[in-house]
Amino acid sequence: MSSTVHGGPGPDACPYCGWPDRAEPFQVVSRHGTAAGLTVWVRCGCGSLQVRVVDARGTRVVSRGGPVRRAAAVSRSGAVRRP
């Protein structure tokens, strides 16, 4: 969980970049209807992946991943290509 001490992001902001959860830009990756409501996977402007649940109580971020790291690309032959 991110801390709000020393100017860190608040509880409704990305802990990696501090951008508010309800603000643009974010990219919807997928949406899935469930018995409890809607599960929405979104990517923050910094690249971190978030899982949001939308139900009668509103929208909540229930899980977060870290920003995408730039890694070496692997071709189909298995050879590593450096960016």
In short:
This protein is an all-beta fold. The chain has no helices and six strands.
Tell me about this structure.
The protein is mostly beta strands and 83 residues long. Helices cover 0% and strands 42% of the residues. The protein is built from no helices and six strands. The radius of gyration is 16 Å and the shape is globular.
**Percent range of helical residues:** under 10%
Question: What overall geometry do the principal axes of the alpha carbons give?
Answer: globular
Structural class: mainly beta
Give the oligomeric state: single chain
Low-confidence stretches: 1-8
Rounded to an integer in angstroms, the radius of gyration calculated over CA atoms is 16 Å
- Into which percentage range does the β-strand content fall? 35-45%
Question: Can you give keywords for this protein?
Answer:
single chain; mainly beta; two-stranded antiparallel ribbon; disordered N terminus
What order do the helices and strands come in, and which of them pair?
Layout: E1 26-34, E2 37-44, E3 49-55, E4 58-64, E5 73-74, E6 80-81
Antiparallel strand pairs: 1-2, 2-3, 3-4, 5-6
